[in-house]
Structure prediction request, 449 residues.
Amino acid sequence: MFEVINNTKRLLLNMSELSRKFSILPCLFLALFFSSNFASAQTSVDDIKKIRKELKKKYDFERKRKEKDIKRQEKEYKAFLKQKKVAEKSRMDQLKREAKLTEEYKKRQEKERQDALDEKIRLEAIASKNREREADEATKEAANLAKEEAAEAKRKEKELVKQEAQKAKLKELEDAHNLKMSIQDQKAKDSEARYKSEIQSIESSMTDMEKEALERENKLKTYYDEKAKIQEELNQKKLDETKKETEAQFTARKMEELDKLNAKIAEENHQKKIQTKNDELSQKLDEVLKKQQAANKAMEQYQKEAKERRKVEEEKFKADLKKLVEEQKKQKEIEAFKEKQRAEEEKRKIEFEEKKKEEEEAKKKELELREKEKLRLAEEKKLEEENRLKEEAEMAKKFEEELKKAEEEAMKAEQLLADMKKQEEQDALDREKRRQEELEKLRKELIGN
Prediction:
């Protein structure tokens, strides 16, 4: 296209130079004419013929050169027309290419719209499936939660029943133990009452002297017991912390108490010796003491047996209670372990749900990012396509303008060439006419001379 414009400009320049040369030729002929006219007055007919011959030769040379220039310009014009046809063909090809590109763009746009519609339908289908799946999962989760809550309620109810049974069993064990203890206590009370009754019966059948002797024996027994106790305290050095006394003070105090007891024992033994001089009283007192000792022995034996039975019962109760407590402790440990397992399972479940939720959120975000990236790329592609089409349209518009300008310049060149040809023909006629006139004038002058 630019080559056509350059060729057109060169053609216009050549034509302008040629027009300037054609305007100089008439002046040249006039100068030659005047010079020949002047020479005719000075020279002979031979000189005039010679000049005429030279003028003719020069004219023929100039004519041939001009014809050659005209042929060259016609050749250049034909080349210009050929280039114009090539440019028009290029223009048609460009228009066809633009039409093809426009059609392809429309098809591509339609395909992109259809793809976008299909993608939208696909995404809506995926979203619908996700909603259905989430709804199903929510329903299943609610059902599982209700099932777990029902199982938990049932477990708690069962545990409560078990606890109530254990409490009832413990109460039953305590009641049975208390009943046995109360029975033993009642038996002990009955035995003690019977012993007291026997003692009272023995005492009621005794005389005053026998009672005094029995009382003395009891006092002696008491004194001896106290003496043994004090002796044990002395041997073990059991200091009384409340009195804040030294070991020597403690020993002195206890020795003083022993002296007092020994005095009392001596007094009672003295009275006992006086009273035992009476054989009958002594015999009766021995019988009373034997009965009393037998009763005391029976009472002690019963108390010992009762104590043993109580001890056995206490140990049995403690063993049963320990066993029950161990069972309850074991059951509590099992329940605590199960509760810990349930808590860990619930924690793992919550962590799994949170992880699952995070993964779903991440997938959702990734999908959104992919969709955004896809839309961005599609938008960039669309923008690039629009820019490309815009550039092609601008190039086509520029090409049209340049082609139109070249056509206008070509039309101007054609018009100028036609005018130049017409002017050349007219100039040739004028020159021929002037030459004939000059020749006629020379001929007349020669004839006149």
Notes: Residues 279-448 form the longest helix (170 residues). The radius of gyration is 77 Å.
